[in-house]
Amino acid sequence: RSSNMSTAPKKRVFRKFQFRGVDLDNLLDLSNEQLMELLNARARRRFNRGLKRNNIALIKKLRKAKAAAPEGEKPEIVKTHLRSMIIVPEMIGSVVGVYNGRDFTTVEIRAEMVGHYLAEFSITYKPTKHGRPGIGGTKSSRFIPLK
After folding, report:
1. CA distance 105 to 102
2. Threshold 0.90, pTM exceeds
3. What b/e readout covers 21-58, taking b as 16+ CB neighbours within 10 angstroms?
4. How do residues 2-41 score in pLDDT, each as one tens digit?
5. Rounded CA separation 96/91 (Å)
6. What is the phi-psi region of residue 76: left when phi exceeds 0, alpha when psi lies from -120 to 50, beta otherwise?
């Protein structure tokens, strides 16, 4: 029993992130063609048809913000209306302000988000919090006198 006490407590081991069997380090080194093979059909079609100028401009702004950030700190927020932008591995670690129709939702891009759209992380409506039903909400409420 005393031999167990002398050993250091067991260190937690975190699962290494993999995107469709490719780990994060290799994911960043992939060419566009190799990355396209890993993405789903909709994203492949989008990249096959070519990225528009504004999508490329967003990636350039993200690169610039990441380069300007001091080591170990989050980069500056880059605001965008491009909700239809597909997240690529190059964007990991960036902070994007995604417009939802009223304001910019801050989204920190993580490895798990690769292949998803920016819009998926910026909700455009306020979910309803259902309270009690009002007058006319039910059939029985017709018989309640209105004072």
Report:
1. 9
2. no
3. ebeeeebeebeeeebeebbeeebeebeeeebeeebeeb
4. 555 557 677 777 777 787 878 888 888 888 888 888 888 9
5. 9
6. beta
